[in-house]
Amino acid sequence: MKILLRTAVVLIVLSMPPAHASILLRIPDNAEQELPPGVPRTVDTNGAVIAVEDTFTTKAYEDAALRLVIEEANQVAREIRLPESLPITQQSLIHAYIGPFGLSYQLGAVGNVKTTNYWYFVKRGNKLSDVTISNIDDHCRRYAMKYQWPVSRFETNAPYQLATQWLAAAHMDVDALNRDYDVRVAVDGYWNNVIMGELPKRRFTPLYIVSWLIKGKPHYSAGGGASVELFLPTKTLLSLSVEDPKYILRQPIVFTNLAALFPGKAEIKTNFPGKVIVIDGSK
Amino acid sequence: MQGLRVKDCVDQAALVTPDYWPILVPENRNFTNTVSGKTFWQTNMSTSRIFIVGFPGLQVDRTDHSIDGDKKYAAPESLE
Question: Measured between alpha carbons, how far is residue A241 from residues A47, A61, A96, A121, A167 in Å?
Answer without folding.
Answer: 37, 26, 19, 9, 9
